[in-house]
Structure formats: C-alpha cells, structure tokens
Amino acid sequence: MEHKGLFIILLSLSIVLGPVGSITGAPEDFEQRLRSAKVICGEAGSFVQARTVLTEDIVNDNFCDCEDGSDEPGTSACSNGRFFCRFDGVNGRYLKASGVNDGVCDCCDGSDEYDHPIQCKDHCEADRANRIKELEEKIELTKNGLKALEELEKQKDEHRANLHRSMQRINFTIDGSYVKYLKNNVAMNRMRGLRWAVPDHKYRKLETDEKRKLPASLISNTADDSKENEHRAFPVDQMCVELYQRTKITNYPFLWFEAVAVRLFSVLALGPIWEMVHPTGISSTLDNDLIDECFNKFKIASSKLLELKESFSSQRNDLRKLQKTLFEEPEEETTDGLVGMSAECYQFNDKVYLYEVCPFTSIKQFESGSFVGYLGKWDRWENGIQLYSDGMTCLQGSIAQSSIKLSCGLSNSIVSVQETVKCVWEFSMTTPAACTTSMLAELEDLLKVTSGSS
After folding, report:
1. What is the pTM of this model?
2. Which of 31, 47, 247, 439 gets the highest tally of CB atoms within 10 A of its CB?
3. How far apart are CA 155 and CA 108, in angstroms?
4. pLDDT per residue over 53-110, tens digit each?
5. What ranges do the domains of the chain cover?
C-alpha cells in the first residue's frame, strides 16, 4: 500500500517536473539553482507577494506567482511566461506560454505538448543535421569570400589613383569652362558696344534678303554652284563668330567715329548728305538685328558655360568628400575591401525602378530610363549599416533616405531593395568585403558545438 502511494506521488511530480532530473519548460540548470534557493522571480529580482526565492512547491503549480511568469515555465498559467525548448537550435530557444499544450508541436522533441493527447514527432536530429549542413555551407562561402577579398583589397591603390586622375580631369574641365565663359562674356560685351556703334539707319532701309548676311568675301564656297546657294547666308552661330572676329578692338575707334558722325547727321536732319559722302565703314555691312541676335547667343552660351562649371564644381566636391571618406579620414568600419568595392557602382532592377548604388557616394533611382532622383547621399556608418541621407523630396515633403546592410558573399551585388516606409529604402548587398576571419572562427566554433565535437 505504501509503494502504491509513493508511485502516485512520483507520477504527480513527473507531470510538474517533467523528465527525471529536470523541470518542464526550464533550462537544464534551473532545477539545480532551485534546490540551492538561488532562483527568484525575474532576472532583476522583481517579485510579488513578498516571495524573493522560488521553491519547488510553487514552480509549475499552474498558478502565476511571479509578475514575469518565471515560476511557471511549464504551464500556460502566466500570460507572459516562457517555455524553454532545450533541443531547439544550438542553445535551445524560448516559446511563449500560450504555446504550451495547445495541440501544436513547437519544440523539435514535442516537449511543449507533454500534457496534450497530440503525438509529436521528434525531429531534433534531422534539424541538427540541417543546421550542420547550413553551417558547413556558410563556412565554405566565408572561406571563398576571404579569398575574393584579397583581390578586392588590391584595388584600393588603383581606386585612389583613379580618383586622383578624375579630380585632375574635372579641374581641367572647370578651368576650361571658365575660360570659355570669360571669352563669351567678352564677345557679349563687344556685341553690346556694337549695338551702340551701329545705330538704326532711319534714312537707309536694308532689304529683307540682305538681313543676317555678311559680305560675300566671308561666305565660304560650296560644292553646289546653283543660284539658290550662291548667296546662302551662314548659320547665325557661325555668323556671330565671324562678326566677333571682324569687329576686333582695332576697328572700334572707326566704329565709334562713324557712330558719332551718323548720330550728328541724323540730329541735324542731314541724313541724305551723309548717304552721299559717308565712307564705306564697317557699320555699312552690319545690321542691328544680327548684333542683337549674336548678343543673345553669346549671353545664352555664357549662362550654359556657367551652369557647366557649377555642375563640375559639384562633382569635384563629391570627389573630395569621397577621398576624405575613403583615404584621409576613414571610419573604423571602412576597410580596405570596402574601399576597393566603392570603385564601381551597382544596379538592381525590380521591373518598376532601376536602382544604382555607388558606395560611399550616392543612391539613384531611375524609371523607364529617366532619372527620378537621389534616394540618399553618403552620410555615415551606424551599427555596421551604411546610411545615406539628404535625398530627393518625396510627395508628402519628406526627404528620401536609405540604408545598406552588407553581408558576406562572393561578389559585389545588390540582393534586395525594399521601401519599408514612405521615402525610406533598405538595400541588402553581398560583398567579399563583409567576410572576416572572426566570422569564420565563430562559424567553425558553432559547427563544433552543433556537431558535438570538441
């Protein structure tokens, strides 16, 4: 009779404590700490009902004593309780208390359904084999990535030299554009002077077909000698160049003398007399329509050259910033491999937009071949993630920003692009530059633990 009573007591304890030597839903060391009175409610020591130390009689008694549910690891009495699946993963994992005895096999060994009629299949060994295979593949990938990294690091010096050459070319272009801008300004001012020196001839009307023509001596010969092309006028741009060349500074005194004389005769109403005695001056072959048109042409050209200079100046500033980011004041995360990676830009097409990522510079978006705008320009590193800010203005007035998460891979490529919230993009990229020897060591140690080898 005594043996029967002892059996009933052990059976009831097996439900509460689970397998012999363990407490259901708790880590392996929980029972040992419980018996030595070192288990309290919660990791920080928070407790209720004046209980600082848990005892065996209140653990898994289907009554929630601790606010954090730590006294009920094997039941669902506490809404915030946690059941520990010992054999899931490498070090086990926690399951919400609501998943205990709910008819769903969550733990690989089915231990979370210890008091439910469902029969759970133990697939822990199969899961472990899959983890071992995944780890072996990651180790192989990391090893090959480290080999590719060696070649990528060699591109650092070449990239530095290319940036230097690009800077020289841009400086040369900026200087050339500025010189052309100054020359156009000189030509524009000369046209302004000519406009005064060649007044409107009220007493002499030029024929329409004589307008916008220079003397025949300045018209180049053509292969076609037909009458139609014999007196063909030059395109106005070339005419403006010819006009600028003909009215060089040495001719200015004659132009101004003639201008003063014309104005004097006009004021005195002696136009017909001037028409009989006037010398064949330069102004006789010029007309104000041409001068005005050339003035506008040179003005537009000057404006465009100035815009070109400013555009190249912006590119120069970007290059200077890139040189500073990569070589002069690199952050700790900016490794030699990432410097080599930044020598190129990378594209990703999601069938709607085309994205172009230029590491440490900018991220652009295109649609149907047309540039939409910047999704961000290089800002900084944050927790190993690249941040790009100050992009285009979106519809609701927010400024575009992006982030790039790098992972170990055999090549530099964009894996995915996602607009997580309005005007905020997340990019995932693989690169050998993200492969490290410490990463390889961690994977190899994890493989040893998972496979059970020391």
Report:
1. 0.61
2. 247
3. 48
4. 677 778 888 888 888 888 888 888 888 888 888 887 777 888 888 888 889 999 999 9
5. 13-122, 160-310, 336-439
